[in-house]
# Entry
Amino acid sequence: MEQQIYAQMAAIQGEHWWFVARRRILAAVLQRYVRLPDGARLLEAGCGMGGNLAMLAGFGQVSAFEPDAGARRIVGRESGLQIREGRLPDEVPFDAETFDLVAALDVLEHVEEDSASLATLRNKLRPGGWLVITVPAFAFLWSAHDEIHHHKRRYRKAELMRLVTGAGFCPVKVTYFNTLLFPVIALVRLVKGLLRIDKADGEAMPGNLVNRLLTALFASERHLLGRVWLPAGVSILMIARRAET
# Structure
């Protein structure tokens, strides 16, 4: 991604409704479905500006890698962690079978070789280890947001399941999410596409009241996931385990 995107993420990820609600959803789903051993080791692949590290640290000892040098310096200074230089699929600076859980949160859409990247992440997991991934959903939602974030693709659930299974994982839970806001976001992006408006949506920090309302609405999906697996949404969430042959 471009440097201004990293800077923008750093400025808003602590309070912006999308980041805050997504962390709450991820924490709830991990708590509900993932069983980790005492002293578990976790890896975040492509940690960006580090917005998920504190949440992941609630489940064990966290390591991370990130290709951008500026992001590594800032996140390392603020988190106290050593953020390693690394890039999927071939430059991941950790030994095989090291981790109990690997998280790739809105990462796969940035890499050309998503299948090879998943195979690499499988290699870093201990037998029976867990994978949690999020990706953007539905090609028809492609917008300026995807362009400026250098996305390569958006996914459908069935497509992601085939990809993950082919890389040596057994999917455990998979669902669309950001569902309650999906109709509004889809309408905005479709209208912008028809009118050829190239300004990205959702990039600015909204007003305090709107931000609180959007946070509460999006985060409320954490109470649904697992009871109702949502049929459509702006993103996809998957939990899988390393398959053993």
User: Anything to note?
Assistant: The mean pLDDT is 92. The beta strands are 41-45, 61-66, 83-85, 99-105, 125-136, 169-177, 235-242.
